[in-house]
Specification:
The structure is a single chain. By secondary structure, the chain is mainly α. It has two domains: 132 residues, no CATH class; 99 residues, no CATH class. It has nine helices and four strands, in the order αββαααβαβαααα.
Length: 272
């Protein structure tokens, strides 16, 4: 290993023989299933020919590698996309292994054509691979948008376990102490005897835009601290995509909230 991570050249040695075996297997089974040489541009370039059997190893194995990357890459995409990538990657690898088993069996039996169930399955693979690849790409790039008519809570109270600790204490430290010491849920309504940190309630009359609709008030930093209190107490920082998805904010606001939460975690660590 180097200072920039593991070396990549051993992967080339591993992939080279696998690529040869996979390519020959898929091209062979494609030939038994009716895939062959065609003239894709008749009347335009009559001499141009293409063997469609190569579409099988290129499409199936490329999608398997793409889905593996989306599944295993840390912090890449929402949880829905990673779950889809995990399942489809395992399916693509299983399908690839099945293809490598079927062709040697047919070749050993000196078959000149594949059984019709194999032909049907192999013929559908390019279309299925295209659909899965497009679906995974859309899931990975789907941003988190705020739904229409979304409203925010007027006020949120956070219980302070130690009386007198809310005043003069950083909100992140108060949240950390509450989650560490409280035996129940830290985010509850504060009792009458316990001091609490309360966000100001929304005004009765909100500003209206020129079109007459209510203008949506920006999400406060304090509410973001309350929402991710468990993560802050554990010293973890939510990703920008998670903040977008759970708080229904845009990307720029999510980045600003993440910077604020990062300062809360850093300040809490220094106080400890």
């Amino acid at each position: 290993m180097t200072g920039h991570g593991p070396r990549r050249w051993p992967l080339a040695l591993i992939a080279a023989p696998a690529a040869v075996a996979v390519w020959s297997g898929w091209v062979g089974i494609g030939g038994l299933c009716g895939f062959g040489v065609i003239h894709p541009l008749p009347g335009i370039i009559d001499g141009f020919r293409l063997n469609t059997a190569i579409t099988l190893p290129v499409g199936v194995e490329a999608y398997g590698a793409y889905a593996l990357g989306a599944w295993l890459a840390p912090g890449r995409g929402p949880e829905t996309a990673r779950k889809f990538a995990r399942r489809s990657a395992i399916g693509a690898l299983a399908l690839g292994m099945a293809g490598q088993v079927v062709y040697p069996l047919l070749a050993a039996a000196h078959a000149i054509r594949a059984p019709w169930p194999v032909t049907v399955l192999v013929s559908c693979m390019p279309v299925v691979t295209l659909g899965f690849g497009a679906a995974l790409t859309h899931l990975l790039r789907a941003p988190g948008h705020a739904p229409d008519g979304a409203s925010e809570t007027a006020s949120v109270r956070v219980t302070s376990v130690h009386p007198g600790s809310a005043a003069g204490m950083h909100p992140g430290a108060a949240l950390r102490d509450a989650l560490r010491d409280a035996s129940g849920d830290a985010l509850t309504t504060a009792p009458a005897s316990a001091p609490s940190v309360a966000l100001p309630a929304a005004p009765a009359s909100r500003a209206r835009s020129a079109s007459g609709h209510r203008a949506r008030e920006p999400l406060s930093d304090a509410k973001a601290e309350v929402h991710f209190a468990a993560d802050l107490a554990a010293g973890e920082l939510p990703s920008v995509r998670r903040i977008q998805r759970e708080l229904h904010v845009g990307q720029e606001r999510a980045r600003a909230l993440r910077e604020h939460l990062d300062s809360v975690v850093t300040s809490s660590a220094r106080e400890e």
